[in-house]
Design a protein that fits this description.
Elements lengths: L9 E7 L5 H12 L4 E3 L8 E8 L7 H4 L3 E9 L1 E3 L8 E4 L6 H7 L5 E5 L8 E2 L2 E2 H6 L9 E14 L2 E8 L5 H12 L3 E11 L2 E2 L6 H6 L2 H4 L15 E4 L1 H8 L4 E2 L6 E7 L4 E8 L2 E7 L6
């Protein structure tokens, strides 16, 4: 009988290359790690590169906490050209002469700071009646999309040599940088699209911490798992709490336990031996289980 595979659990901070989908990068990493279960924490378009945290095994249970985290990008815009997708993969819709200065660009950027509304692009994975919008777009069908509120926490111009402009953007999850570039181009009266996009940070993690697929592939099979961070890496921003054996067992059985002196909200919970159990919600002297690991695997 073939021996059972050891479960692969943890988080890989990947530097996704240009030219492949996020899912293709995930499947390659999953194969290299010989993992059974895997997921990512927010896609990057094929033309984009940068930080793509990947979750394996028990870590997939906590991927949503990074999916909802703020993101940081370096965005390269080309003024004067609009495309059907807002990026270099689309068809050119319009070309205009660019007669804008650095001061003109600096004057419009404040309009996009703070909470703004964006209309999601047709070339996106958002669903309409169970189908992603990009399927309708490929069929030439335009779907009415209600605007969504997002927040830009910072928007800085770091290079300016029109028609090329480079922006540094920190924003909430769900922000479309392609749409931001198009809207800035419209505000300048010349149009624009993204020519390059790099995610430089997500949550508390930065691109400097990430590894490439090529580097992972070059490692011996036995060494690849050493690049995985533990599952609780994704929720390290939450307060931690250690439980005695009785309370830890009760929580793992789905029962609430009494606990005072804890600030209300989500907490990371551990055994006395510092084994990560998952997340619990603290409120009115009680800890209720929220998202727990399989303690035999975590």
């Amino acid at each position: 009988m073939k021996p059972a595979r050891e479960p692969i659990n943890g988080v890989l901070l990947l530097n996704k290359p240009v030219g492949i989908t996020s899912n293709a990068a995930l499947q390659k990493a999953k194969w290299l790690l010989n993992a059974k279960k895997a997921g990512h924490t927010g896609t990057l378009d094929p033309f984009a590169d940068g930080l793509l945290p990947l979750c394996f095994g028990e870590a997939t249970k906590f991927s949503a906490y990074l999916l909802e985290a703020d993101k940081h990008y370096r965005a390269v815009m080309q003024l004067g050209v609009t495309t059907s997708t807002g990026d270099p993969e689309g068809d050119v819709l319009d070309s205009r002469e660019v007669n804008v200065s650095r001061d003109d660009i600096l004057a419009v950027l404040p309009r996009f700071m703070g909470e703004i509304e964006q209309i999601p692009p047709m070339h996106s994975a958002l669903k309409h009646q169970g189908r992603p919008l990009y399927e309708y777009a490929r069929a030439g069908i335009e779907i009415d999309r209600p605007p969504r509120k997002v927040t830009l926490r910072s928007l800085d111009m770091i290079e300016c040599a029109p028609p090329r402009v480079v922006l540094d953007v920190q924003c909430t999850a769900g922000t479309y940088i392609r749409t931001l570039a198009q809207d800035i181009g419209a505000a300048l009266g010349c149009g624009a699209h993204l020519t390059a996009l790099t995610r430089t940070a997500a949550g508390g993690f930065s691109l400097e911490q990430a590894h490439s697929l090529a580097d992972l592939d070059a490692l011996e099979v036995s060494q690849r798992q050493t690049w995985l961070q533990p599952a609780d890496y994704l929720v390290a921003h939450l307060p931690a709490l250690q439980l005695d054996a009785a309370d830890a067992a009760a929580l793992c059985q789905g029962r609430s336990v009494s606990h005072s002196g804890t600030t209300p909200g989500l907490v990371r919970v551990y055994t006395a031996a510092n084994r990560f159990l998952g997340l619990a919600h603290a409120d009115t002297g009680q800890l209720a289980p929220r998202r727990l690991t399989n303690t035999q695997q975590a």
